[in-house]
Amino acid sequence: MDILSLFVIVPLITILGLVFTRNLKQARIVAMLGSIIQLGMSINLVFAYFKERAINEDIMVFTRDMIWFKQFNIYYSVGVDGISVALLLLTSIVVLAGVFISWKMYDLPKEFFISLIVLSIGVYGFFISIDLFTMFVFFEIAVIPMYLLIGIWGSGPKEYSAMKLTLMLMGASAVLLVGILGIYFNSDADGGALTFNILEIAKVNIPFEAQKLFFPLTFIGFAVIGALFPFHTWSPDGHASAPTAVSMLHAGVLMKLGGYGVFRVAMYLLPEGAIDWSWVFIILSVIGVIYGAFSALKQTDLKYINAYSSVSHLGLVLFALLMLNKTAWNGAILQSLSHGFMTALFFALIGMIYERTHTRDIAKLGGLLKVIPFISVVYVIAGLASLGLPGFSGFIAEMNIFVGAFQNEDVFIRVATILSVAVIVITAVYILRVVGIMLMGPVKNEAYLKLERVTWYEKSGILLLLIPIVGIGVAPLWLSDMILESLQPFIQGLI
User: Fold this and answer.
1) How far is CA 163 from CA 108, 117, 137, 169, in A?
2) Could you give the count of Cα atoms lying within 13 Å of 427 in the half-sphere of its Cβ?
3) Spatial separation of the C-alpha atoms in residues 220 and 177, rounded to whole Å
4) What range defines the domain where residue 421 resides?
5) How many whole angstroms separate alpha carbon 141 and alpha carbon 136?
6) Which of 196, 305, 323, 407 has the fewest CB atoms within 10 Å around its CB?
């Protein structure tokens, strides 16, 4: 059994174990053990990757092929580079943290954890796939459980939010499928056989007219799940209605499929189309960065604040990818990782605060630093990382993005970069505004003086997410070098 397929098989075994559980205690132990094994696998993969890369200069390592549909040349093809490895590590950490944060899920716990693990299978499979069809199948597997997770275990207008999310993402999937089929039917442009294999298609000179047609379809198909403006509206409502662990996976992992798909498929396979269309999507991504920040500034619900903040931060990822240079792309991947840990941590903390105070309205909160100091201090740290303070992962990511973007001498791009940089000020305002209202000052409600203390499983979930935020900020070079090395084959297609 190859090392990558275990990322699909182990979660499937975990689901099988969950099927036979009888109560909450058994369900959470099985889910926790399965998630710990997955985290151990991803850590082992990091070391195995460095060892393999020392002797293997292929674009992807640990590649495996197994015929699936011979008639259409569809294979179960897997492989990873440094970018895939980093995102697999992110996924395993967020999944385990989500299990800890859902420790007290009393309502249909077995079904909840099964749905959560199914979502993780889709994400793992997406990141290891190098066959477009297989990648699309895993993409759908990741998206479908969201409807159940929000519709059954959510709160507020959960049916509306679940339906809105599902319809918009399925609509994007339909557009994406057209783009993928367009790439497939042009993969024989140099006289070879039709193929879905990404590495094989990259060797083909797809006609410019076909690239112009299918790049926007592929870009939009992936970027909708990455909160591209104006197709982002599913995200805030979905976050607000989702249970805590689902919000963590939704923002921390699921939305990363968008940027990764844009990079791995749209940019790599359709580089001339990317150059031709870049100005359109640069405008949309910058609008998303600015709009998300100002929208977060106006919100009073903690989940909506974090949701619109995600729209802004992920707009930076798309903006960086459209810069079409190595430094900005490095920043885009680092921003994806940083945002994944950061926003999952935010949603975990918001869930803990809501469980204790029964409100997410910052106007009704106050003085929480005095009564739940651990949660409050970690919230401040997450906020400082979000606004890009040196020493945290957000600073490393944003510096690479802005330096890479400003390397381009085009006036249009430099103006777009300045606008994006200016949003850091707005981010600081809404982060410090929440900290000031919610954590500082006198305790507004006497009932808050008796709030429940932080439990061991909550601390475990928080520390799993906090350590990488600080670790990447303090010692980023090993991760940055791994990403930069993997970017080289992709950037060559744009030179």
Assistant:
1) 21, 21, 20, 10
2) 29
3) 11
4) 6-492
5) 9
6) 407
pLDDT, position 41 = 92
Structure tokens, 438: 């919610």
What total number of domains does the chain contain? 1
Given a cut of 70, whether residue 189 has pLDDT beyond it is no
Q: What is the DSSP letter of 437?
A: I
- pLDDT value at residue 298: 87
pLDDT in tens, 422-467: 888 888 888 888 888 888 877 777 777 777 888 888 888 899 999 9
Q: How deeply is 26 buried, as exposed, middle or buried, from its count of CB atoms within 10 A (0-12, 13-18, 19+)? A: middle
Q: What is the pLDDT of residues 375-424, one digit of tens each?
A: 889 999 988 888 878 888 888 888 888 888 888 888 888 888 888 888 88
Residue 65's SS3 state is strand
Contact 45, 85 (CB under 8 A): yes
Measured CA to CA, the distance from residue 163 to residue 147 in angstroms comes to: 7
Asked whether residue 473 is domain-assigned, the answer is yes
What span, in angstroms and rounded, lies between the C-alpha atoms of 64 and 4? 9
Cα 441 vs. chain centroid, distance in angstroms?
35
Residue matched to tokens 């459209």: 322
Radius of gyration (C-alpha) of the chain in whole angstroms:
22
Q: Is residue 134 part of a domain?
A: yes
**Residue 1, domain member (yes or no):** no
Helical residues (DSSP H) of 299-392, grouped into ranges: 302-321, 326-357, 368-371, 373-386
User: Minimal CA–CA distance to 393: which of 483, 298, 263, 459?
Assistant: 483
Q: What is the pLDDT of residue 42?
A: 93
The crossing angle, in degrees rounded to 10, of helices 373-386 and 456-474 is 30
pLDDT in tens, 311-340: 888 888 899 988 888 888 888 999 889 888
| Residue (of 173, 387, 164, 237) closest to 297 by Cα position | 387
Please give the Cα distance from 319 to 336 (Å, whole number): 12
Reading the block at residue 488, the tokens are: 């080289």
Pair 149, 246: CB distance under 8 Å? yes
Considering the domain boundaries, does residue 315 fall inside one? yes
Q: Is 159's pLDDT higher than 80? A: yes
Do the beta carbons of residue 226 and residue 255 sit within 8 Å? Answer: yes
Q: What is the maximal distance between C-alpha atoms in the chain?
A: 75
Mean pLDDT of 49-62: 84
- Contact (Cβ atoms closer than 8 angstroms) between residue 313 and residue 296: no
